[in-house]
Amino acid sequence: MDRILVQGIEFHGHCGVTAEERKVGQRISVDVELEVDLRSASRQDAVSKTVNYAKVCQTVLEIGRSETCRLVETLAERIAGTLLERFAIHELLLRVKKVFPPLEEIKGGVTVEIRRGRKDLQ
Questions:
Q1: What is the pTM of this model?
Q2: Ranges under pLDDT 50 in the chain
Q3: Residue tagged active-site, from 55, 97, 98, 119
C-alpha cells in the first residue's frame, strides 16, 4: 500500500489532565501517515483521485483547535476517526505530541501513537 506522510501539523490545543492545563492550552504537533492507493492519482495526475493533504491538515487543525479533552489519547482517537470518515484512507498511523508537557523533566515532549483502519470505524 502507498503512503502519504504529513508531518508537523502544529496548533495551540486544550488537552491536559488538570483544569489549568485545559484552560491555558499548549503547543501540540501531529504527524499522520495515510495508507492509500495512489496508482489512479499518479496515472491521471489528478488531485481528485488522491487524498488531498491540505484538507487533511485542515481537518486536524479543526479538531485540534476546537476539542477539549484530558488525554492526548482521546484527541488522537477523535482525529483518527474523523480522518477515516472523511477521506478514502485504508489505514493510518497518527502521532499526537505535547511539545512542552507540564513536567520540566521531559525535554523532548510526550507522544501518543495509534494505528487505525477502516475496520475500526463503528
A1: 0.94
A2: none
A3: 98
